[in-house]
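Minutes, structural biology subgroup

Action item carried over from last meeting: produce the structure token record for endopeptidase La (Maridesulfovibrio ferrireducens). EB confirmed the sequence was re-checked against the source entry. Recorded below for completeness.
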Amino acid sequence: MKWFRKKRDEGSQPESKGSGGQKVDDILKDPFADDLRMRIESASLPNHILEVARDECERLIKTDKSSPEFALGHNYIEFILSLPWNVTTKDDLDLTRAKDLLDARHYGLNPVKERILEFLAVKSLHSRQQAKILLADDEVIARENLSIIFEQEGFAVRSVANGLEAITAMENDPADILVTDLKMEGMDGLQLLQEVRRRWPDTGVIMLTGYATVKTAVTAMLKGADQYLGKPVNLTKLRDYVMELLNRNQRIQSLRGPVLCFTGPPGTGKTSIGRAIAEAMGRKFFRLSLAGLRDEAELRGHRRTYVGAMAGRILQGIQKSGVRNPVIMLDEMDKVIQDFQGDATAVLLEMLDPEQNASFVDNYLGLPFDLSGVLFIATANIVERLPAPLRDRMEEIEFSSYTLSEKQQISTRFLIPSQLSQHGLNPKDFNLLPEAVRSLVVDYTREAGLRGLEKQIASLCRKLARKTLAGGENSDIVTVEAGDIPDIMGPPPHFTTTAKSSPKVGLATGLVWTENGGEILFVEAARMQGNKQLILTGSLGEVLRESAQTALSFLRSNAEKFSLAPDFFESSDIHVHIPAGAVTKEGPSAGITITIAILSMLTGRAVRQDVAFSGEISLLGEILPVGGVREKIMAAGRAGIKTVVLPEKCDYAVRSIEPEVLENIEVRLVSRLEEVVDLALL
Ligand code: ADP
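Output recorded by EB:
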């Protein structure tokens, strides 16, 4: 389908009235004015924008060139002219190509890729549906002429002679657009309109009539017609209306689907998959980092009356990308700050809402800009942090931590060759043996994603580059073995979160889930003389404080069962501390760990340090289920834990984890705290 641009009437150009500081002759001769007018007329602006641009232009021409208003007005017009009002790229929705491209750029991530291909398939089907037009007119010639024209444009056209026939045709196969004459035998256009509105509300209706009067037009519009045209039909206008209605329908259909939201720890490929989707679809891509954003104006711009006002980041991005249908990645949406100083969420909601985003208004531009062609993809580390209305709009696709073997594969196939090239080295000249890569992954990084690993590989490449130069021109292939790694990279960094080696009294190892993936953390418990206080430190959230209180109450109420003195709390204080200030400690999963730490401290039985726990306890000692099981088990593996104790209800989650993750870990599922005691305490 083609876009038909209206030929603009030469005569409709506004005439300069020549008031203000300059004379009429000057204005007419002004080459700047001529040039600007010409650029505005030839910029294919939509009608309502064209009008504003013309007005602004005429006002500017009358403004003194040395005044600040001139610069402001000029910038504004230039901004309007620089926006891609009608520029789009055509979507490439070839699924085989998209799959090849996703595979070529990313190793693994199969569930994610599958979901993306499904998404593209739906888009592709939508775009392939041939738009259907039904023509109702009692004049044969008029019907035939319109049929021929619309068929040439690639529409599926049917034509009928009156309202009754039109209803039958709609019943057989509802059309996307009905173009109907007003006066017809049998059932006329208005009756037909009412019937269509009632039964097929999504169909667009354009009324045509030879007796175009304001009154009939108003009646038709009131009864629900979308557009109204007098005869003889202005074909350009009719086509414009048809395209407008189709765009509206298509937009509603294709955007009824949710916005994709990639969630998961940093460095797991969310941004780069977004980029690959844009590449696969043949769309432009830009990334909008939302971390730390609190000011609505940053997204939506400042009004022109402010000094130094600028458009918001959305329109700036659109302007830079040069098209109105790019892929926009709204990165780290969960880090948007909501506080009393402002809330950018409202703008995000508006942008993502298909009902509203077709007329997104930037404060600086002050005119609606159509964002409905944009494909938005959001990313978030912790999706629970998103405000509920935003989360409702999203379909979450989870990116989980990479296993050791995935990291090795990705390093060998992607990260190492790309980093070598980026450092001016030829990948063919270097051979990093698998054990060397493994050492980089295991000894030099401890993370869910690949960011740290990518940095370590970059560091290795810098060192190799230096060595290569120092060694002079040598054509031999350089082989890097595991043993060479410490020589090149220096000693491995010391990670504080490895499991302790020998059993300890009053110290238990817990597993938590954070935005960086799983982590292990330690819970310490101590008792001293005092008066029945439970002291909690380690910047714990409210939920954790309550867990600790529950743990203590459970032990006090079951003192006999655990061979504790019934009055152990009478003349003492108990202090529970969770070090590692950097880890957010909020979730409800540390109940077991806290109970075990306190119990160990009270009984003097040491806790095995190769066992880690995750699970909440109830006041009656039942173990309640927790989330993030895969991430937690992986964190345990990385930290050298041998046994992971989890709630029985996590059984299903454990069974769906791939064998590689469970390789060196024994998972024990428990339903009551008593079962944990024997596993954990010596
Ligand atoms: P995120 O957006 O999740 O923080 P990035 O997309 O920035 O992560 O990924 C970090 C780096 O890891 C990038 O260089 C990316 O190309 C690479 N990467 C991530 N996942 C994969 C994968 N499955 N295959 C190949 N490279 C990957």
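Discussion: Residues 294 and 570 are 49 Å apart (CA to CA).
Next step: EB to file the record with the rest of the batch.
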